[in-house]
Task: inverse folding
């Protein structure tokens, strides 16, 4: 069964490529995770970046106007922002319409629908361009059954949003395939869907059907097949815990990998809420996950050490492994720590 066959037809996408990545007016890297994810995991599909004058975040790509990007072969501009609430700001509209006028389609993973903007709808019609909303779940999602499905499943969970759950899932899926195992990355957010070409936008699913959507995303599989499922939010997040719980119950993971960014003390965008400790987030995921898979276990920890130099990062990985009694790695650094994490995930 291929990735696209495993999903409802509406969840498989054929997006116009390559892309110009639009950063809006972002001043915090965490809110540009869509753009960074595409840069890091689909670099061959990205020709450059573009932003409002107010933006202070850069991807390090060539800065191109929409017309310049089109001249280099770009076929679409992707809104690379994942802000709170998924809002398309009015200040973006002139830049988005400029992309349409330059002959680019628009791709968005925001909650707000592109076609709900009269200006964008009119510009798309005028220039014969498409408005493509990725955060659109397929029709006909059923309630969860709770039935234990054959196959192996790994879910990345986290202490907060935008700290490495997607990167960890992508790296683990790749590592399993490199070891000769059957493994698929299962995307659950807009960026992962753009990278993988399909998936389930979990935070756009009606609450009663969250677990059912996760079951649909990861259906029956061969006993030796791994679905590596991208986590969403955090079980102890004041806004997004509901999505995390539905995904946990529906995916029925055999293994979880807990993701964390060292040094992050409060939730992104929620400064009054401290980030949970790794032991706490592991314990609550195991406790809640046992409802649909009593055999759930933690395979280890993924740390986002991008803010640290190599020596400091490796020292932290080793000290945290000793403290937690678990395999601890930064998947983006690889190395023996990551190989031990993969081994721990596969251990029966």
Result:
């Amino acid at each position: 069964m291929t990735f696209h066959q495993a999903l409802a037809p509406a969840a498989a996408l054929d997006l116009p490529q390559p892309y110009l990545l639009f950063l809006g007016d972002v001043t915090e890297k965490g809110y540009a995770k869509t753009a960074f994810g595409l840069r890091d995991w689909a670099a061959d599909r990205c020709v450059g970046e573009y932003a409002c004058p107010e933006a202070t975040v850069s991807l390090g790509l060539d800065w191109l106007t929409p017309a310049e990007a089109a001249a280099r072969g770009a076929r679409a501009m992707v809104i690379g922002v994942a802000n709170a609430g998924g809002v398309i700001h009015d200040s973006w509209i002139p830049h988005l319409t400029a992309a349409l006028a330059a002959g680019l389609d628009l791709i968005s993973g925001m909650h707000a629908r592109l076609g709900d903007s009269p200006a964008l709808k009119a510009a798309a019609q005028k220039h014969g361009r498409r408005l493509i909303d990725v955060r659109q779940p397929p029709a006909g999602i059923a309630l969860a059954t709770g039935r234990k499905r054959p196959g192996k499943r790994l879910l990345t969970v986290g202490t907060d949003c935008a700290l490495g759950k997607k990167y960890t899932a992508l790296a683990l899926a790749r590592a399993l395939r490199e070891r000769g195992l059957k493994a698929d990355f299962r995307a659950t957010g807009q960026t992962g869907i753009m990278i993988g070409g399909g998936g389930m936008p979990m935070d756009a699913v009606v609450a009663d059907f969250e677990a059912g959507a996760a079951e649909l995303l990861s259906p029956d599989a061969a006993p030796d097949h791994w679905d590596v499922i991208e986590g969403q939010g955090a079980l102890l997040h004041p806004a997004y815990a509901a999505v995390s719980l539905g995904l946990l119950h529906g995916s029925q993971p055999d293994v979880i990998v807990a993701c964390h960014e060292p040094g992050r003390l409060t939730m992104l965008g929620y400064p009054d809420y401290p980030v949970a400790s790794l032991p706490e987030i592991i314990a609550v995921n195991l406790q809640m996950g046992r409802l649909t898979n009593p055999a759930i276990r933690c395979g280890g920890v993924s740390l986002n050490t991008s803010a640290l130099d190599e020596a400091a990062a490796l020292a932290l990985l080793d000290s945290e492994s000793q403290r937690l009694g678990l395999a601890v790695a930064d998947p983006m650094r690889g190395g023996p720590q990551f190989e031990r994490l993969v081994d721990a995930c596969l251990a029966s």
In short: Confidence is low (pLDDT under 50) at residues 1-10. The chain has two domains: 17-129, 152-346. The two ends are 25 Å apart (CA to CA). The CA atoms of residues 105 and 154 lie 35 Å apart.
